[in-house]
Amino acid sequence: MKAIILFDGVCNLCNQSVQFIIKRDPKGYFTFTSIQGETGQKLLQKYQISNNLDSLLLIEDNNYYTKSAAALQICKHLNGFWKYLIIFKIVPPFIRNSVYDIVAKNRYKWFGKRDSCMLPTPENKNRFI
């Protein structure tokens, strides 16, 4: 089963992260959906996650991960040295998540915001649900 990444579809940083993951996931392990979309909203309801989520969300093997845990779990499946970032799981979550929260809180200010969700390219369309 493929893992699903829910992302903020209007966030430039989040959209760039999706493109980054696609380039380093040639086997297509990850699929993507925006949190704002119908599929994203249904998944949030299914897993009883707040709509006010200020995080990337990974659903994998009927478990979900948020914040730094999601980012590290995603890195584990990427090509290249990125998979070795899993070592940061030794850092206590409250420390990892406090850094994550600073970026999340400032992502629109630092990276900008779109008026609408990105449209996948024809080559990547099958990766989006």
TrEMBL record:
InterPro entries documented for this protein: DCC1-like (IPR007263), DCC_oxidoreductase (IPR052927)
Molecular function (Gene Ontology), one example: protein-disulfide reductase activity
Protein name, UniProt field: Thiol-disulfide oxidoreductase
Species for this entry: Niallia nealsonii
Lineage: Bacteria, Bacillati, Bacillota, Bacilli, Bacillales
